[in-house]
Every structure is written in C-alpha cells, then in structure tokens.
Amino acid sequence: MLNQSNAPHREAIAPTAGRASAVARWLSQPGNVALVVAAVAWGIGLALILRQRLFVTNDSLSNYAHVWYLSDRLWHGHTLPFHMPSLEHGDAFAVPYGFLPWMSAAVVRPLFGDWTVTLWLVLGFVLLVSAQWWAFPELRGGWRTAALLAEPALVESVLLAQLPFLWAAAMVFAAIALWRRERWLAAGIVLGLAQATHPAVILPIAGLLVAARLCREQDRWRLLRAYALSLLVAAPAAAIVLMSPVVAESTDAQLVGNFLATVSLRGVVIAAPFILLALQRTPLARAPLAIFALLIALNAALVPARHNEFAWAGLVRTPDTSLAAFVDSPAFQAGATYRLLRVGDGKVGMYEILRGGGKLDAEFFPESIDRRSWDDASSYTAFLVARHVDYVVIYNAYDARYRTNEHELLASMSQDPTAAQGAGVCTALEQHRPQYDVYRISACASVRAAP
Q1: What are 275-286's pLDDT values in tens digits?
Q2: Which conformational region is residue 161 in: left (phi greater than 0), alpha (psi within -120 to 50 degrees), or beta?
Q3: Cβ atoms 277, 139 nearer than 8 A
Q4: Of these four, 27, 35, 278, 415, which has the most CB atoms within 10 Å of its CB?
Q5: How confident is the model over 4-34, as pLDDT tens digits?
Q6: Beta bridge partners of 436
Q7: Rounded to whole angstroms, how far apart are CA atoms 172 and 195?
C-alpha cells in the first residue's frame, strides 16, 4: 500500500530530476557556460536600454527625431512626407535612409511614444542575431554563438544606437539564409531592401559579398541576376542619399574618411560569421576559450581607442533636458531656425527645439553641424544667412571642447554692428545664461556707421 501511494510522487519527481540532470550536463560544457555569460551580459544591457524612454548615445537622437516627425505627419497630417522642413535649414529629407525601421516605428509610435524607437533598437539586435542563426546553422550553440555575441563591432552598433544599420544587417543575413536555401528571387529582393535601408554602408558590403561568392558559385548568372535585382530595389534610396544636403555640404576628404571608417567597422559585423567559419578550419578551433577571452578584452580595449565612453555611459544616463526651460519660455520663437552648439547632451537639445516647434540649421551629424572657425565676421555671417539662421545658441562647454572662434565672432558682432556690414545682418545678445548665450541674427534696415 505504501509503495502504491508513493508511486505518483516518485513519477512527478523523476522528470524534474531528469531535466535538472540534463541542464547540469549542458552546463558542464565550457562553451555553453560562455554562451550563458554572453547571453546574461546582453540581457542586462538590453534591459538597461529598454528602461529608458530616450536612450541617449552618440547616434540615437537622429532616430527619435525622424520617427517623431514621420509619425506626426502620418497620424496628424495624413501624409507620407518626402522633406523635413524643420531640419537642415529646410532642405532635409524626412527619410534620408532607414525607411523600413523608421516608418514601421512611426506607425507604432502613438502607442508607446519615444520609447518605440528604444524598442525598435533592441528589436533590430534581436532580428540581427536571429538572422545570423538562420543563415549559419553551423554556428549555433556553445563557443561559436558566444563568440558572435561578444564580437565588439556588434556591441558598438547597439551602444551607438545604429538602428538602421542593425535592421539592414539583419536583412543581409536573411538574404544569405534565403540564398543558401535556393530561394533566389526572395534573396535578391531582401538584399535590395537591406541596401535600401542603409545604402551608404550596405551597398559596398553587399558588393563585396557578391564578388566573393562569384568565385564559388556554380550558376554565376543567377547570382548576378539576383544582385542586379537587389540594386534595382535599392536604387531610389541610394539616389536620396546622394541628394542629401549632408553629402553636398561635406568635403571630399570628409566623405571618403567617413565612408572608409564606417564601412570597415560595420563590415566586421557582417564578416564575423564568415571569420568564425574560417577559424573552424584552423588550429585556433582548438582554442575557443582564448578566442572568447580575446573578444571580451577587445571590447574593453576599444572603449578608449574608439572614444566610446559616452556610449557605454548611455546605459545608465538620464537625458539632459536643461534646454527645455528655454524652449518653454517666451524667449523661444516657434518657427525660427536655431543653430545649437552644444556638447555632452547627445543632441537632446536639438530634439527639444524640434518638439517645441523650432527649426534647426543642421542635421544631427557633425558634418552637417559644421563645427569650425571662420576667417572673419563677413564669411561667418554669409554662412548664417545661407542657412537662414535666426538664433544661435552656443554653450561654454562647446567652446572648451572645439575651441572655435564662433562665440568670439558672435560677441564682437553684437558689440559692433559694422562688423558684418556687407551682409546687412544685425547680431544681438538675446540672453546670457551661466551655461550658454543666445544670439539673435536678423536683417538690418540700415547699419550704423563706424565711429
């Protein structure tokens, strides 16, 4: 009787003990332990990102601004805008790149507000990792997946909030997965969508992938046809990038330098699975712990080398909204064009000006902001006039960081109206605050003669 009454209890314990034993056996393999460590680290990092309405890091606010504008025009203006008049002194495109992630986030934004972009960033990472697994089943599990998760360029892409790139890279791996499954047409279309999402980065990377594949592809014409289809899909987006004011306002040296630096770094994310597959055929395959440890060390070493301290601090940063007091004050003029020169806030101030109804003379990129010194007041004034600038807000911290003569020129022009006489522009100190000054730039009916 006792044995019969205890039988169900023993049967319930047996599966539980079996599962615990299976987990113990799985964790007894060092590669799986490394995978758990990498997964837990990513889980903590992504949770820290998701807890923030605005994830403020190097490249994040551009995403929030464009998604906000697209959502506003879509839901309140009932239009799909081509231009974004409140940015880049009226010449910006609403979607210079990143159509799929930005537009899908704009559709959902009324539900979650700014947090939608934060969620879409994390979703981009999940899509990328999932697509890598789909494309390369041989890299699933243990040391190999742990190495993919620890790859420094992937970590940096998330920390810098490179949302369009993460989505585009996910589509690149989806195209590879489709090609490996002999779904040629779908692979070409998806690769085209990847290139359209981030043309400046993915177009050259995709070209290199196709060129490398040609050496081993049995049906080269089929590959070339699929690639031609992808270029056809990406062509409109590539044309918009080339027409972007940021491209027009950048020097050839800046364009080449940024192109090489960005493509080479982001290319590592795409190349990582191929590198790991190649390593499996070398003696290094017998030293997976050394490879994993090296990747962890590289993540730490690249923080000072890549000046990524600001990006890592974004995991626990509270957005600096100190400019909101000015935007909410009567001194702020909705509809006016502002040139904001500030550091350390991740461009939150620029976003606040847009949300407050103001316009910006620049996009959210350094090339567009144009941080430099000018030869004299006349050349500087011509720059302001060309950008239709009504107000310049310049912080003391900006002077300390970039050491340009812009603040000095503004001060001298406000004290001497004849300094920019040729341009017929008057400059006046509108507000002086401990952290920043606000200068009003306006046309002069007449200019006072020099004493």
Answers
A1: 999 998 899 888
A2: left
A3: yes
A4: 35
A5: 555 555 555 556 666 777 777 766 688 889 9
A6: 395
A7: 8
- The residue among 395, 408, 301 whose CA lies nearest residue 344 is 395
Distance CA 45, CA 42 (A): 5
Q: Among 410, 436, 428, which residue's Cα sits nearest to residue 341?
A: 436
User: Residue 435 corresponds to which amino acid?
Assistant: Q
- Report the C-alpha gap between 346 and 319 in whole angstroms: 8
Pairwise CA distance, residues 313 & 187, whole Å = 38
Contacts of 91 (CB under 8 A, 6+ apart): 83, 245
Task: Return the number of other C-beta atoms located less than 10 Å from residue 236's C-beta.
Answer: 11
Q: What six digits make up the tokens of 116? A: 């939608």
Give the Cα separation of 126 and 145 in Å (integer): 13
The CA–CA distances, whole Å, from 265 to 132, 241, 253, 412 equal 18, 20, 18, 43
Beta bridge partners of 443: 425
DSSP designation for 80: -
Q: What is the pTM of this model?
A: 0.90
Q: Where do we find the tokens 């010449």?
A: 91
Cross-strand bridge partners of residue 439:
392, 429
HSE at residue 412, side-chain half, CA atoms within 13 A, is 14
HSE-CB of 313 using CA atoms within 13 angstroms: 12
Closest by alpha carbon to 105, among 144, 63, 146? 63
Helix/strand/coil for 413: helix
